Each structure stands twice: as C-alpha cells, then as structure tokens.
Amino acid sequence: MRRVLQAFAAFLLFGTAVFATLFGTVRGIVHDPQHRPVPSSEVVLKAKSSDYTQKTQTDANGEFHFDAVPLGEYTVTVTNASFEGQEQIVTVLSGTAPILHFEMHLATQSQSVTVSAEAAPGQTESVTPTTLVDRQEIQETPGASRTNSLAMITDYMPGSYFTHDQLHVRGGHQVSWLIDGVPIPNTNIASNLGPQIDPNDIDTLEMQRGSYAADFGDRTYGVFDVAPRTGFERNNEAELVISAGNFYQTDDQLNFGGHTSRFAYYASVNGNRTDLGLQTPTSAVVHDAANGFGGFTSLMYNLDSEDQLRLVAQARRDYYQVPFDPNNPDTQGQFLQDANRENDSFVTLTWVRTFTPGLVFTVSPFFHFNSANYLSSPLDLPSSTTQKRSSKYEGGQATIAWVEKRNNLRAGLYAFAQQDSQLFSLIFNCPTPPTPSCPEASGSNLTPTQVNPLGSLTALYVEDQFKVTSWLMLNGGLRQTHFSGSVVENATSPRVGASLRIPKLNWVFRGFYGHFYQAPPLLTLAGPLLDEATSQNLSFIPLHGERDEEHQFGVTIPFRGWTIDADNFLTRASNFFDHNNFNDSDLFFPITIQGARINGWELTLRSPRIRNRAQVYLTYSNQLALSFGCITGGLVAPCSTPPPGFGFLDHDQRNTLHTGAQYNLPWNSYASMDVYYASGFTNGNSPPDPNSHLEPHTTFDLALGKSFGERFSLNVQGVNVANRRVLLDNSFTFGGTHYLNPREVFVQLRFRFHY
Prior knowledge:
Elements: H1 2-14, E1 24-31, E2 42-47, E3 53-57, E4 63-69, E5 72-80, E6 83-92, E7 99-103, E8 113-115, E9 130-134, H2 135-140, H3 151-154, E10 160-163, E11 166-169, E12 176-179, E13 182-183, E14 202-208, E15 223-228, E16 237-245, E17 250-259, E18 263-274, E19 290-302, E20 307-321, E21 339-356, E22 359-375, E23 383-404, E24 407-428, E25 446-451, E26 454-469, E27 472-484, E28 488-501, E29 508-518, H4 527-535, E30 539-541, E31 546-559, E32 562-581, E33 588-606, E34 614-636, E35 647-648, E36 655-665, E37 669-678, E38 697-708, E39 712-719, E40 727-729, E41 738-739, E42 744-754
Parallel strand pairs: 1-7, 6-8, 12-15
Antiparallel strand pairs: 1-4, 2-3, 2-5, 5-6, 9-14, 10-11, 12-13, 14-15, 16-17, 16-42, 17-18, 18-19, 19-20, 20-21, 21-22, 22-23, 23-24, 24-25, 24-26, 26-27, 27-28, 28-29, 29-31, 30-34, 31-32, 32-33, 33-34, 34-35, 34-36, 36-37, 37-38, 38-39, 39-42, 40-41
C-alpha cells in the first residue's frame, strides 16, 4: 500500500506542473500568389473516416493552428470569398506538427474547391518508422477483424510475426499498447495472447518500430497507439456483426454510437468461440477450443472550446484449451485438460486543456487489471501444473505540448503502482519405478505457493523537435526512469535524431540513436518452489530491467502517391527478457539473458488508389536475432564459463514478407488478398549449421465482400487457403511444438441500422 500512495503522490504532485502531448498539431499558412497573407479565411479540418471536425480562421499573418488532433488522415479546406477554395490531405502522427501551405487564387465566376495532390506522408515529420492502419483496412484484410487476430499488425508492419502463440516484433516480446496516447501498463513477459484491444473497436492504429521519442516509453520492440472509435463516424447508428465458419467458429459484435456537436459516444459488446484456438503441437487438432467475451466504450465531451474530456474503458475474458500431441509416448492414452484463462480490463480518463494556440495540457489517470491462469488436471502425466498470476496497475500520465514557430516541445510524467498475486503448484505423477522420460518422484511435488510482490515506476521525460529549416528537423529527448520492486533501479535514456528532406524530390533521410530501459516483471520465488529449485542446483536471482541501445537510419521516398520506406537498425540489449519452463513442466518463468544483438533492414511499399480501384502494399524484413552469455536472472543454473560466441534466439527468422492488395470490383464488391512468406524460425536454438532453421513456408489469404445498399454487407474470408501445414517452431510453450494453423474459411455479415 505504501508504494501505491507514493506513486499517486508523485502523479498528483507533478500532474499540474509537467508537460507533454498525446496527439498531434496541424499548422498552416494561407497566402495569395504574391505571397501576401490572406487573413479571415475559414479553415476546416475533417477526419477522413468520420465527422470529427475542427474549424478556425486565419489570423492577420494568414496563419492557422489546430491542436489536440488525434492521429489519422484528414482533409484541410480553406475558403475565402475573394479566392477559390483550396483543399489538402494531411496525415497526423503522434507528437508531430506538420505545416501546410495554401496558395489562394482569385475567384472566377464559378466558385470551386481545388484539391491538391496527396500531401507528403506523415513519416516526413517524424524520425520514427511508422505505419497507419485504419478501420476500413482492418475490416477488409483477411482474418484481421476477428477478436483475437493480430493480422492488422503482422500484415502491415515489417519485422512482426506470430509464433508460439505470441506476437514478436524485431526479435523481442515486449511491446506497448496505448489508447489515445496513454500507455496501458504491463510489465509481464509473454503471458497473454491476442491484441490488447478488439480490432473492431479501433478507428486508427499507429504502429511504431524503434526510434521512439522520449514520451513513448521503453518497451523497445513495438509501440501500438490506438485511436478508438468515438461515435463521430456515425449518427445514432448500430452495427451487428455475426460470422460462422469451419472449426465451429463464430466471432460476433454489437456496437452502437452517435454524436452531437459537443458529445460523442461509442460502445460495443462481443463474443467468440472456435475449435481452433492455439497453434497445435502436431498437424492434428485436439483439445484446442477457445472462447471469449467482452465490452468496450469510448466517450468524448467538449465542455467548451478549450476543454475536452475523454473516457475509454474495456473489460474482456478469454479461455484457451491447450492442445496436445495424442501420440506423445509420455501421455499415450490420456486426454489432457490443460487450459489458460485470461482477464483484462482498463479505464482511462483524459482531460485535454488548450490554453492558447500551440499550448495544450493533458492529464490521464488510469487503472489496469490483467491476469493469466494456467490450469491442469491433477491426474495429468507426467505432471500437473497450476500457475496463476494477476496484476493491478494504478497511475496516470500528465502531459503538455508547446508548439511555437520552429519548436515542438513536449515534457511529462508517467507513473504507476503495481500489485501482483502469483501462485505456483506442480504435481508429478510419474510411475514407480521412475522412467527416463519421467524421473521425478512425488517427493518433488510443489505444494501451492503464493507470493504477492509490489512495485512502482515513475518516469520523467522531455522531448523537442526543432525545425532548423523547412528541410531539416532535429530531435532530442531524455527519459529518466525510477523502478522499485524486487530490485531498485534508475535509468537515464537519452535519444537524438534528425531528418533531412531533399527539396523538390521530397525524399526524407532520417537517423536515430537512443537508449531504453524496460522494467522487469515482479517475479519472486519462495517456499517449496524455491526449495525444489535449490535441490536441482538452481538459484533464483531477481530480474533486473532490460537496457537497450539502438542505432537506426532510413529513408522515405514519396513518388506520385506511392510511398517507399526503408530502414536499417541495430539493437544491443543487456539483460534480454525471455522465458523458460521449469523442469520440463508447463510452469514458465521470465528470465534475463546476459545480452542480445538484433539487427536487420526493413522495407515497406504503399500505393495510392490506382484508378480509384486498387491499392497494393508490401512489407519485408531481413533480420538476425542473436543472444550471448549466461542466464542472469530468474531461475539460473551454474554458469561459470559463458557459452562461446552467439546463438540464435528461438524467434529468429531471417526473412519475412507480406504482400497484398485490395481491389474494388463492380456492383459494390471488393476482393483483398495477402501472401505471406517466412524463411523459417530457429530449429531448437541449434548452433550455426545448414539446418539451423526450420523449412520456409508460404501462405495465401483471401477475402471477397459485397455491400447490399447502406445496411447490409457480406464477405467470405479464407486464411491459409492452400492449407499449408508445416512445423512452425519447436520451442516448448503452450503445449509443446507449434504447427501452422490449417485452412480457415468463414462468412461474415454486417447489418447497420439507426435507432
């Protein structure tokens, strides 16, 4: 309780004095052909996919300013009675402040609005490689709109892939989920499955990979900032989504929303079930059912022109049977009943205060609860495992942004207190006398052991983007973190970057160097579990935080609406987070490895709408994920002499490629597809040799959809249409080795109605 009070005291103390931003800013200058300012012009900023709108007028210098703009794509329209109207398209990323230039021309007898070519991509305003995916893309991407799907990430973000039932990005597990720019805290490693937020509740997803600003935390391998659906995209309208497919799967949702000029609301409830949940240890699908249900809401209220309140809340529960190999000689004749139960809920309340144009203050208290419970039948052979973990987080973020002329300055405080409850139990049911595959006797059983560790984290940060000229941007930031748990640590993380735009070509070169600190899970061992580990010559060393050093450089090339982005990165990690099982059981613990080196290069290609019909994309990653040294934290075996050289991490995959397209067909119909190529994951952490990786594989996904008026739409989706079945990886998590999922086909119906 003392740590809770300390964290809240820190938040309240600094909450009124510390500054940063959650959104972006859009600025602009309106002038005539002689470059004289055009005052008193009306400027309207409108979201591409909703009715979200801001309005203002240019000042005496012809300048305008929009603050607290959520991430996404917008149109900016300028009108003046003496000139023809002008319209531009702009992409807003978190923390950016793009400047638009409008050259107005004298009005002719017939008034019109001139739409310029698409603006340069938002990436030109940031040194962080970023990908945006909107609601429509999620709905049309094969398999992406299902509650537990991560296709909205893996299809569009290079270096991301799904193996042993976990999302990995750039060779690591730890990613951050944010809602409206507010981080949802979670210090646990690889204990939860699926996305943090149902894809159907997302309006825009911003995906960042490396080169993070100081206000974006420290979970190095990926940041996913969600702009939720708000109700601005509809007017007292509800939508019912129902689906049915093979493996008795269904994934259903009812959502509704609406808005007035000051208030917007959105809410949803969902449920799903399937007989194909987790990746199976063989090509046979046995004991693999999954189901879940949940609810989500987003409320937005504009008190006046200067104050806005936002509330976002979610609660969900998921259940996964753990599949097994019916031909495993250790479990022959058994029907195992292992299962993983997960619960997650959070609530964030955000107050956005605009003091003057360019100066925005934000306070966001939050609460997050997360649990994952692994349960087995007490008669399972060779062992029965029980592992229950729950985590509570209370805290908040206080932020401010000051955008003035060449500076985009941000600073702030992020703090939370954490309380964990952990229970471990392990029962060995080996025969008498023991066999080589099951040598443990009942005396090795671990009676239920519960521990309740506490922790807290406080981080202060400052970041500035300085626009030296219209073609040169410099970034600099510092994040100071204090963590208190089983260990007490402090970390200073400097970050610097620069972007250089080549005039006329509009190519943007960028570079970044920075440090990151990732707080460790709250893991404590005591009682019978610690005694058993000691008897097997294992010791428990408290986990320390992972510390990372990153170098990255890249280039963004816009060409006639196409965008090509390439980057090269190198991450050096000490105390690299991973996870291991205890004594060949299903009892898993986080560990730290002395060091890791992950490097690679990535490529993305996005097209404009081609003849207003087709759009194509490509993402490619070539990377190498290596580790070295001994296990330094968690359950540790004696390691007087570290292993020589480097070894592959179990989620090392050299080449990962996604390419796909969406095509508008006649009669209000469409087709979308994705082709995925993977060169194969590490073959059991083997040393470098010709068989060090498993065989490559390729899958093909397809979706066909049609709208019947404004109310009905129907689509048929196929995932792994060719039914390609290969061994995906052989790391021992959630039931053993993992095969690529078989073909899935399902039909989805959407029905919209007003109320």
